[in-house]
Design brief:
195 residues; mainly beta; Immunoglobulin-like; 2 domains; 6-stranded mixed β-sheet; 6-stranded antiparallel β-sheet; 1 helix; elongated
């Protein structure tokens, strides 16, 4: 009888520990597993000069990624760049790292303080890359994240953007996050002096 009571107490204790662990993990968004999501092919819209792609899992769109670069008129010495991520299907973006590069050319990129997401970000130059690291998207992750930049005029034909995205789908006891990389090779539009 005594052994049976010990066994019941051990089982109850184990169940409480396991349930508590799951609650702590799910409430604190601690992911025990990670899976890679492959980006769809990047499409170019020549009408507005934009690039876009989707990250899908099992035929369900998790997020759309959008990038555009255009001359900043009337100041023809700069370009405006817009990068955005829009989550779908109860997906939340957890973190984002953007890397801008143009081969061995040094880029001068400024972030526009259009939202508070930049407050906790790191924005720096490393070798020939300009990097924006947002380690925690916080409450911004469940809605469209729009990031605006200014690129100083330079004699570039193209600009590469690499986005490392970490996200998860909202679900009870969510233990898996999704990770993806998006590569965009964007053409830098030429500024026509007559415009």
């Amino acid at each position: 009888m005594q052994q049976r009571k010990k066994l019941v107490v051990t089982i109850v204790f184990s169940v409480v520990i396991v349930v508590s662990l799951f609650l702590v993990v799910s409430l604190n968004q601690i992911f025990l597993f990670s899976e890679t999501v492959i980006a769809d092919e990047v499409t170019y819209d020549p009408n507005i000069g934009s690039y876009s792609t989707s990250l899908t899992k099992d035929g369900v769109t998790l997020v759309n990624v959008y990038f555009r670069i255009e001359p900043d008129f009337p100041n023809q010495q700069q370009y405006r760049m817009l990068f955005s991520i829009t989550p779908y299907s109860q997906t939340e973006v957890d973190s984002l790292a953007l890397r801008f590069s143009a081969g061995t050319n040094v880029l001068t990129i400024y972030k526009e303080a259009t939202n508070n997401l930049f407050d906790d970000s790191q924005f720096y130059q490393k070798d020939y890359e300009t990097i924006l690291n947002i380690p925690d998207a916080k409450s911004y992750g469940s809605s469209t994240i729009r990031l605006d930049f200014i690129l100083d005029h330079c004699a570039l034909d193209s600009l590469s953007v690499k986005a490392d995205i970490s996200m998860h789908q909202e679900a009870p006891f969510q233990l898996t996050s999704q990770k993806s990389q998006v590569y965009i090779d964007a053409t830098v539009p030429k500024v026509n002096a007559s415009e």
